[in-house]
Amino acid sequence: MLAAAERAGGQDCSDLSIQLERLFEGVAQNCDAPFLLAVSGGSDSLALLHLFARWAQGSLACSVATVDHGLRPESAAEAAFVGEQCRALGLRHKALRWVRAANADKASQENARQARYQLLADYAQSIGAKCVLLGHTRDDQIETLRMRFGRLEGADYAALGTAGISPDILFDGVTFHRPLLGVARSVLRAWLSAEGVERWVEDPTNEDLSYERIRIRTRGQTGKSCETDASLLRLQAISRRWRSLVEAQSLAFAKQEVGTGLNHLRIPAPKFYLLPEAVQRFVLGVAIASVGRSGRRADGAGFVRDLRSLVAGQKGFSMSGAVVSHQRKAEIIIYPEVRHGDFLPDARLMADLAQRYQDLPFEARRAVAWRISQPGDYRFDWSTPLESELFDLLVNADFGPPLGKTRSR
C-alpha cells in the first residue's frame, strides 16, 4: 500500500543533507564498493536510498534490491515502485522473490527475516558486493530494546550490549550495515517530504497487534516514553562498550590458550576458571558453536547454569551438537555430539585419530570421526566482527575444513 507523506510537525530534518558524511562514515571506513541497498519502499529504506544517492553522487558503484516475500497481493507493485525510484536516480534495481515450499506454514517475522537476509547475501555475492545497507532507524532500535530488556537475567551487561540492533552484522560472508540507526523515523519522513518524495509503502502488518513489535510500537506512541527510551539507549551504549572489552579479552585468551584439533578444542581448565564469567561465557559459547555447528554462539539461562556447574568441578554437559567435558580436571575438551548410537566409524580414520590424539577420550575420537563423515553446509550468523574472528580462530585450525563441508559466515 502506498501512503502519502506525512510531515512531522516540529521535527528538524534540515541537517540530514549536510550530515551525510557522518551518517555514512561507517560505510566509507569499513566497506568497499560495490554496495547493495536493501529497499522495501517504506519510508525508512526509501530515505536510505535517497540519502545514499545524495552522498555517493554517482561516484560509487551501487545496486538496489527489494525482497518480495509474496505474502501480500500488493508486494509485486511495491517492488515495481522501488524500481521506478531507482531508475529516476540512475541506479540498477532487482526484485528478489522468496519462493516458499507449497506446504510451508504461515511465515513468521523471524522466518521472513532469515529468508530476506539470505536472499540479499546471495544476490550481493553474485554482483561482487561485500556490504549491504539496511534502513533500520532509532525507532526500530528502541522497539527492539523494549522487547528484549525484560528478558535479560540480572545485570547481564554484556548481553544488554547486543540486546538491541547492531550497527553491523556478518551474515554468510557479507557485512550488513545500518547507517540510519541513530535517526528517528519522523525525521526521515520529514526529510523525504522536504525533498519532494510524497509517497512510500505502508505495510499493513505494521497495524497487526498479534506481533509483539507492533504492540510495543503502539504503546510507545503515547508520548510518555521519551525519557525511558533515552535511558535505554544510554544504557545500551555503555553496555556495548562493556561487551567490546569482553570480546577483546575473549579473543586474546583464545589466541594464547585454546588448542585446536580435528573438530575438537582444548581449553586449559585452571586458566579458564580464573576468567571473569562474562569472558568464560563468550569463549565457551563460540567454542560450542564452532564444534557443534549450531550456527549461533551458545548462551542463555541453561548454558549459564551448565557453565557454573562445570567451573564448580561438576560433570560436563552437551549443548547445540557439542559435548563439553573435563579431561583429568586439567583441560576442558569440546567435541561433537554423536547423535546416532549405531554409528560405526571407519577403522583407518579411528586409527589415525588414535595416533594423533592419544590422550583424547575414545568417545571424543569417535564423535570427531562421526562429525567429519557427515556432509553439510554450515552457515553462521555472528552479531559482531570480533565474534566472527574468534570463530575463525577456533574452527578446524589443525586439519582444515572437514571432509564434505564448507563454512560460511
Describe, in plain words, how this protein is organized in 3D.
The protein is 45% helix and 16% strand. It contains 16 helices and 16 strands. It starts with a strand and ends with a strand. It has a 7-stranded mixed sheet with strand order 4-3-2-5-7-6-15, sandwiched between helices. It has a 5-stranded antiparallel sheet with strand order 9-10-13-12-11, with helices on both faces. A two-stranded antiparallel ribbon has the order 1-8. It has helices at 20-23, 25-30, 43-56, 75-89, 109-126, 138-149, 157-160, 185-194, 212-219, 226-257, 269-273, 277-292, 301-311, 347-356, 362-372, 385-394; strands at residues 2-4, 35-38, 62-68, 92-97, 131-133, 168-171, 174-177, 199-201, 259-260, 265-268, 317-319, 322-327, 331-336, 376-379, 381-382, 405-408. The chain is an alpha/beta fold and 409 residues long. The relative contact order is 0.11. Helix 3 packs across helix 8 (185-194), helix 6 (138-149) crosses helix 9 (212-219) and helix 14 crosses helix 15 (362-372). It is elongated, with a radius of gyration of 24 Å. Residues 4-11 and 397-409 have low confidence and may be disordered.
